[in-house]
Amino acid sequence: MKHKYLDLRPKTFRALVRFSAQTYGDRLAWVGLSSGQQYTYSGAYDTIQRLKKSLFDSLGLHKGDKVALWSENMPNWGITYLALTSAGLVAVPLLPDFSAHEVENILSHSESKVLFVSKRLLPKLKEVQTEIKDIILVEDFTQFTDLENFDTAGNKPFLSDKPLADDQEPDINETDLAVIIYTSGTTGKSKGVMHSHRSIISNTLDVQYVQNIDPGEKFLSILPLSHTYENTIGFLAPFLHGATVYYLEKPPTASILLPALKKVRPTFMLSVPLIIEKIYRKNILPSIQAKKITASIYKTGFGRKMLNSLAGKKLKKIFGGNLKFFGIGGAKLDPEVERFMREAGFPYAVGYGLTETAPLLAGSNPKNQRFQSTGPAVRSVTLKILDPDPHTGEGEIIARGPNVMLGYYKEPELTKQTFTEDGWFRTGDLGVFDKDGHLYIRGRSKNMILGPSGENIYPEEIEAIINSFENVNESLVIQQEGKLVALVHVDFDEIEQKAVEWFNQQKDKATEFSQTQLDKLKHSADIVNEYLKNLERQLKDFVNQRVSKYARIQKVEFRKEPFVKTATKKIKRFLYTDKGKKN
């Protein structure tokens, strides 16, 4: 059974849920590898309808109310998300790695009335100040009765015994708001991307035109479902086409992932470049270079292709032996690693998109993948270059299609700035097309940094926190060799004075340092350096407690000189990146 040209009318989550339940019935939809929890398509539909009834009857929610979902991947994440969206409620999915501070800001900004949360995040939830009174555990759909201690033993059952009847369903239009996705919430100026039913469902339908998904395909999920990449391509698309998605339900460490690959033997996987790059650099390349003869052979074109081909056979076996599509997105793929995958015959494919576009704008499959390209525009999307360079054809990529967001929640001015006057969405990315319409990303015109797993990191929000720290005048957050580095301008005259005061305090207390260590600090420069080391530890702790795991600062470099600025007093950011330094 193939649905190459499948369409949904109307393009709503409710239509999706009903279609899949009626079409695939007793086929497995989701399986939790750790918990053993699983749902067939018809079983999922029944639970979704029961959860919807509870939301309306027990909590008194109405169409358009916002409900937050903060959990790791598991079958009940899908139940919750589809229950919310197909009920006409607005889902607010949160990344598991969001800090308590970010969650607090997002819950407030989104005006969420209910929170679904997983057991693993309960310790972090205790640090969140929220007025939400209705908190439900994702694992078993029980409602907390003790909001002070989050005592799961005292929870009361929440899931209704009866499903929501058809005549109780509120009307849903394709253009209704369905989901608000927060890319960050660190400073309180949260940026929530608003997506309609049509924007997400149309993009879900477009996936099939990039890579055919048959009923019975096996997906192994390793990326967070609250990220649009995994959500649309790795969750909604397989649900639309009768595939089965397996969830690790634990972080994808080697000890968890390798047995899962062997057990599931997936045909589809989605990843970010970091995963395959680590495999290549830590496993494949060292094994080749371990012996002089293979290291020597690898330096020749023919030898490299031969050894990569042999390594590819082993790699495909490690991934279960049935893999036909290994999608890569979220960040640029290293050319050396891509060359390896091509020569290894590994079935990889690269796509391009943004949270604001639900997310897919361009994509390829393993058969039409071109080196360093993200593929052509997907079916319902039109891409073009704004003001292309007359010599290179490069310029900012702009997009138009049903998958483009409604705008940023409560941010009309920011929304306006993100679109051209004639309604094209500005991606902020630089690119160029080849003669066949395949897109090549050249760089980012925006300041956003992509984290190691494809997370959006906005340096200005981290800088706002750094700048609130004592002694800091201004700062700049950049990425160096995959690490987040904070360049921090401080008043060194003040630092030297404070360093002397600090040194005298340490001599009196001798708490942080031994007397031997203090005796070594004989010169003022040594004292200042030791003070700066201590200040760096404090600053990193201060910042990293207030940002997500993937946005943590790993290194601080203190500067005596102010940053070079424009006439409007904005730091010339490009001068401090690796590219700017080289130029």
What is the topology?
Layout: H1 13-24, E1 28-32, E2 38-40, H2 41-57, E3 66-70, H3 75-86, E4 90-94, H4 100-110, E5 114-117, H5 122-125, E6 134-137, E7 142-143, E8 156-157, E9 177-184, E10 191-196, H6 197-210, E11 218-221, H7 228-240, E12 244-247, H8 254-264, E13 268-271, H9 273-289, H10 292-298, H11 301-318, E14 325-328, H12 335-344, E15 348-353, E16 360-363, E17 382-386, E18 395-400, E19 407-408, H13 412-417, E20 425-433, E21 439-444, E22 449-450, E23 456-457, H14 459-466, E24 472-480, E25 483-490, H15 492-509, H16 515-520, H17 524-544, E26 555-559, H18 578-582
Parallel strand pairs: 1-12, 3-4, 3-5, 5-6, 11-12, 11-13, 13-14, 14-15, 25-26
Antiparallel strand pairs: 1-2, 6-7, 7-8, 9-10, 10-19, 15-16, 17-18, 18-20, 20-21, 22-23, 24-25
Helix pairs in contact: 1-2, 2-3, 6-7, 11-12, 15-17
